[in-house]
Amino acid sequence: MAIDAPIRLLTYSTLYPNPEQPRHGVFVEQRLRHLIGSGGAVSRVVAPIPWFPAGRQRRSEVPRVEQRHGIPVTHPRYPILPGIGMAVAPFLLAAATKREVAAQLRSGYDFVAIDAHYFYPDGVAAALIARSLNKPLVVTARGSDVNVISRYLVPRRQIAWAARRCAAIVTVSQALGKAVIALGIPADRVTTLRNGVDLESFRPVDRAATRRRLGFDGPTLLSVGHLAEHKGHQVAVEALAALPGVRLVMAGDGPMEARLRRLARTLGVTDRVRFAGILPQEELLWWYGAADALVLASSREGMPNVVLESLACGTPVLATPVGGVPEIVSEPAAGVLMTGRDAASLVEAYRTLFGSPPDRAATRRHAERFAWQPTTEGQLRIFGALRARAGPG
Could you tell me the pTM of the whole model? Predict the structure, then answer.
């Protein structure tokens, strides 16, 4: 019996890890690694790196070519021009990277389709390149590309144009799928394939020993992510004022760090707030496992990996009901959804959760529903259909 050769893909996204930003777009890399690990597909990655002319930012030291987990990755540069409107961004990105994508074909790597991630500017640029190379395009919408950027007239038109050129569209949550359909895209071309979680890398740990090692003392909340306003770390800091004895650990960095430190001083909770900085991906399970709950008070999300990772470690979640979050936090074992995005709502959710805390083994069992296999199988169906449509050769 003949066995089909793996489907050849070209993955295209500015959201992809590199040596300078090891967690940047890690969810794209994780999904691709599981797809390739299935044996059903192979891929090469074009992950462009922004370039700022006139010395406005230090030159990136990211290598032009690298291998990550056995996957070939190239990092062509594309220009970011100060004062130029965002409407031009997809065209600059496409013009700067089309040569690299075409070079893959010239090298003999005749891929079945371009697998692009994030609709703007990446998906629009990929649509321009796919059209010029006469290749099918699949774009994965991931959150703010559709929920936020599409609110602007010109990007919305460009996203809708790119979406109409897609052979298929993947969304990471049902909520996001509805938003894509609202752009005028037929529902039968939109497939929801949720982010998964690596149940081996994120697992329960010895809590007592880990808490001692990390210096966790008393009830401890954890927030993980970029320290930016839309992530809502400030809500967690404000809630401490009404939660005596509760501590907060923030893992990440970003533009709000100084403001968050000032807020903690103003509220008199500095001694209960810990800034852990950016943590390596492989270290996060210890912090999840040591915490009593993860807090995610975001104003917007797609399908947040941090929620899945926390649940896989047996740690419940307190979160705003945005994007795909309600699709994950769907029963008491997973945690509690906040009724608003403010300190009072977080305090209420905290008291509800710990008035009757879930069994951490039950929380882990809930996370096991989000293994990567269904997502991998869904991708193979989409890309397999495109290969069959292309025919032999």
Answer: 0.85
